[in-house]
């Protein structure tokens, strides 16, 4: 069985730690390189990292030495959890050197030849990779995952958009402090308070879902025709972004039709069953006071989006809440799913792994 060697850039950070946790014991991927900034390079991971997750630093990672985050790492894949500025300069170097880069940073998400992907939503956008490689002369590639709000928002809208059309939506966010990385927002600024500003966030939330819900047309992406408006807030919650959404659909419907579109939705993912994907990634809770970050963020091991409170909206027709874990579904988990999808469908690793179903379909362009 082929095991794919992977590295993590920004491995000591908030998202990097999630990668280190999620990759522990992964059936296809073996972590062979961890990279940090100049601050931590050369130190043992277990000593350099300020671990924020529940359990201890996974045993496999403790004794690994942090390396400089530049090509030369002993791996085929790099998961990038770099700040966007560093990602902007370093990720193309890795892609040019032949590495497969799965990035959380915003630097290349909206680039014309870079897939922005959530396997639940747009797995066919993998077909942009050969075009990117040909245009840029890269042996490797960059494949990005969206912002941590864009993912649960797009997951909530996707089943409705494909059945009924979504004309416009207004989203108000309540975003956890871990979304700002570590140390992130000073405690003095957030304890007992709400900050009604997250730099650059509203623009990302208003554009990324349109690429996700759009199509790859062979040479370029066509964006979904939905008008989005976002208002983003940082709240004193540790993990999990809660969204309040009002939306206008393309037709008048009874409530049961909206609910059943959500409840019946099973993403195709090119016919793959991926090791880190839950069977049901979109969950509707019927209690009046759910979803809540403190109780529901880890639903489906953090890989699910949790919906609730569907009700009429006097302005746009319908309103509801949706919640997503910002560092799992919203970051490292989504990146890991993208890598699983790539290796299952393009490199066909799945057929060598006994507990994963072989694919039903392949992507012709690849
Ligand atoms: N936090 C979230 O919920 C979330 C969600 C979606 C996307 N993202 C994106 O994911 C990326 C990482 O975010 P984060 O929250 O994990 O940030 P973070 O906690 O601040 O961690 C940043 C990491 O990058 C490393 N780093 C910093 N500057 C570097 C440089 N110049 N060269 C190489 N490495 C450098 C740091 O290394 P040292 O510790 O060694 O200094 C650290 O490991 C960002 O692009 C962010 O926008 C974050």
Characterization of this structure:
This protein is α/β, with parallel strands linked by helices. The protein has 2 domains: 4-146 and 330-352, Rossmann fold; 150-325, Dihydrodipicolinate Reductase, domain 2, CATH 3.30.360.10. It is 27% helix and 22% strand. It is built from 11 helices and 14 strands. The strands form 3 sheets. It has a 6-stranded parallel β-sheet with strand order 3-2-1-4-5-6, with helices on both faces. A 6-stranded mixed β-sheet has the order 10-7-11-14-13-12. The chain has a two-stranded antiparallel sheet with strand order 8-9. Helix 1 (14-22) packs across helix 11. The radius of gyration is 20 Å and the shape is globular. The two termini are 22 Å apart. Residues 352-366 have low confidence and may be disordered. Bound molecules: NADP nicotinamide-adenine-dinucleotide phosphate. NADP nicotinamide-adenine-dinucleotide phosphate binds at residues 10-16, 36-37, 39-40, 69, 81-84, 86-87, 104-106, 148, 178-179, 181-182, 326-327, 330-331.
What key attributes describe this structure?
366 residues, alpha/beta, Rossmann fold, six-stranded mixed beta sheet, 27% helix, binds NADP nicotinamide-adenine-dinucleotide phosphate
What count of domains describes the coordinates? 2
Order of helices and strands: EHEHHEEHEHEHEHHEEEEHEHEEH
| Cofactors, ions, other ligands | NADP nicotinamide-adenine-dinucleotide phosphate
Tally the helices: what do you get?
A: 11
CATH topology of the largest domain: Dihydrodipicolinate Reductase, domain 2
Task: Report the uncertain regions.
Answer: 352-366
Radius of gyration: 20 Å
CATH architecture of the largest domain: 2-Layer Sandwich
Question: What summary fits the major beta sheet?
Answer: 6 strands, parallel
Which percent band covers the strand fraction?
A: 15-25%
Percent helix range: 25-40%
In CATH, the homologous superfamily of the largest domain goes by the name: Dihydrodipicolinate Reductase, domain 2
Strand order of the largest sheet: 3-2-1-4-5-6
């Amino acid at each position: 069985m082929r095991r794919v060697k992977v590295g993590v850039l920004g491995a000591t950070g908030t998202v990097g730690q999630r990668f280190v946790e999620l990759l522990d014991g992964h059936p296809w991927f073996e972590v062979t390189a961890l990279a940090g900034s100049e601050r931590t390079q050369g130190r043992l991971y277990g000593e350099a990292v300020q671990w924020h997750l529940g359990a201890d630093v996974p045993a496999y990672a403790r004794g690994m030495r942090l390396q400089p985050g530049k090509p030369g790492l002993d791996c085929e894949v790099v998961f990038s959890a770099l700040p966007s500025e560093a990602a902007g300069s370093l990720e193309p170097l890795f892609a040019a050197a032949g590495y497969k880069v799965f990035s959380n940073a915003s630097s290349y998400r909206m680039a014309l030849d870079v897939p922005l992907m959530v396997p639940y939503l747009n797995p066919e956008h993998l077909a942009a990779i050969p075009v990117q490689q040909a245009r840029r002369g890269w042996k490797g590639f960059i494949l990005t995952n969206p912002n941590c709000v864009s993912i649960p928002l797009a997951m909530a809208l996707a089943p409705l958009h494909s059945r009924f059309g979504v004309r416009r939506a207004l989203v108000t966010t309540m975003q956890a402090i871990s979304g700002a990385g570590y140390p992130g927002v000073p405690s003095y600024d957030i304890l007992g308070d709400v900050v009604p500003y997250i730099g650059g966030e509203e623009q990302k939330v208003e554009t990324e879902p349109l690429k996700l819900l759009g199509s790859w047309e062979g040479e370029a992406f066509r964006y979904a025709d939905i008008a989005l408006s976002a208002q983003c807030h940082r709240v004193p919650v540790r993990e999990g972004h809660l969204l309040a959404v009002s939306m206008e659909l393309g037709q008048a419907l009874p409530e049961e039709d909206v609910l059943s579109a959500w409840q019946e939705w099973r993403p195709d993912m090119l016919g793959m069953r991926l090791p880190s994907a839950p069977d049901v990634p979109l969950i509707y809770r019927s209690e009046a006071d759910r979803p809540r970050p403190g109780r529901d963020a880890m639903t489906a091991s953090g890989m699910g989006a949790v919906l609730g409170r569907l009700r009429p909206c006097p302005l746009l027709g319908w309103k509801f809440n949706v919640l997503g874990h910002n560092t799992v579904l919203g970051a490292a988990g989504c990146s890991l799913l993208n890598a699983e999808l790539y290796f299952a469908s393009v490199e066909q690793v799945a057929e060598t792994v006994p507990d994963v179903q072989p694919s039903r379909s392949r992507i012709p362009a690849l």
